[in-house]
Every structure is written in C-alpha cells, then in structure tokens.
Design brief:
280 residues, alpha+beta, Diaminopimelate Epimerase, Chain A, domain 1, globular
Amino acid sequence: MPIMTRATATSLPFMKMHGLGNDFVVFDARTRDFPLSEALVRAIADRHTGIGFDQIAVITQGTGDAHLTFYNADGSTSAACGNATRCIARHLMDESGKEQLHLTTDRGDLIARDAGEGLTSVNMGHPQMAWDEIPLTKALDTLSLPIDGAPVATGMGNPHCTFFVDDVMAVDLDAFGATYEHHPLYPQRTNVQVAQVVGKDHIRMRVWERGVGITLASGSSSCATAVAAARRGLTGRTVRIDLDGGSLQIDWRDDGVWMTGETMHVADGTLTRQFIEKHQ
C-alpha cells in the first residue's frame, strides 16, 4: 500500500544509511509525497538493478519529532526496525541540534538520545512475552517453544525466534533461517536469531530477518535476544551483542529495552522518473 500517491512523480531524493552493515534507504516525506508501491519497494531493494537495502524507512510528520514507517525488501511492512531508527534519530538530531527525540512508529512511541562519542541510543519499548502479543498461533510457553532447539519467542513490535547454540558459525543460516521464518507457530512469520552465550554480559549472534534474509545486524533482533537470554538466566540484563557487522550494547531497563551503537549516513541520491515509472 503506498505511503502517499500522486499521478506522476519526477524524481525522489533518498538517503543511504547503515547501522553495523544493516542498511537502509531512507525517504524524507515530511515535505513532499512519496509514491511507494509494493512493486517499487521491491525494485529499489534489488542490489543489481536498484539501490539495495535491508529495509526502507520513510520519515513523515508525527505527533512527536517524526513518524517512521518501515518496509522489508520483499515489500512487506514492519512495525519496528531498531538500527534504522537509530540512523534516522542521528540524522534528525544533527539536523535539529536536539540531544533527545520523541519518535512514533507502528510499534509505539520511542525515545532516542545522543549517547556521546558518535553513538546513538533508542528505547525500543517493553518486550512482548505473552504468546498472543508476539503473536503465536496458540497459547504456549514462550520461554521454550516446542520446536527442535527449544527457542525463545519474543516480540519487539515484530516477532522473534531465538535459538541458543554452541557455535553460531556452525549453523547453515541460509537454510535454517528460511525454514523457521515460516514456522506455523508464527502467523506473521518471524525473525530468526542464532545466539551463542560468550559470558554473562556478552553474546555472539547471527540474524535472519523475515522478508529480507541474512543481514549483518538487526537492532530489534538484538533486543529480543538480550531479553531471551536474561529470561533464561544465561546473562544479566545488560549485554554486548557481537553481530556479523559490529557490536550493539543492549540494556533491558524498567522503562524498556535500550539499544546503543554506531550509525553511518553513507550518501544522498535520487531515484529517476524513468525508474519510478517503470516500477510503479
């Protein structure tokens, strides 16, 4: 479903950003229309004939500083995207001079802060641990699902399935992630994480994102894995999570799950009218 539509479009400016290699195409729709059809999203996602991204994020006016909407590479939507939220928060803080922002998403209201030394923190909200909030198809113990490996189910505005393993590099994530993304217990599909506990405050993790595939990092997945590990008693509530693309600090506090890490605004570009009209 398009964010906004108009009969014709000339060109669409975009920003390319990434958080630890989890990369995004960002459109600022606060002052103009953006005709984003599902077909156009998929075309932009193609890394050979489009731009390439793990998610698209669209910035619009909101009740706070801005509202964010997220699309996966297959054209589906997601209520949450932690690394994209951090990237956009850094951009908006640099733009406005503010050190704290109030952002809204389909996940809910999020607070972002300048953490100093080029780092950005976002409170991703309280984790969803009840089966019907995640959601699952039926009432189950979300701390130990009846799936080989007894993974943990967690919601962070999007569903997650976390497997704790001895060696994350020994898992064929292409096959593993594709299988469990579509598990029948998850009616909306799920993000899949394989996590290796290194110490009480340290986890090594790899990620398969629903609608995308293997990604170098995922903010919401990192939050879900930290919550799952703490619930299992494997770690404390503050952990460093090492992903294929870098590290995030996750702190599960009374007011929500805080995520802190680096961001990068890579480039600014423009989609041409020719490309837009071909794929609308």
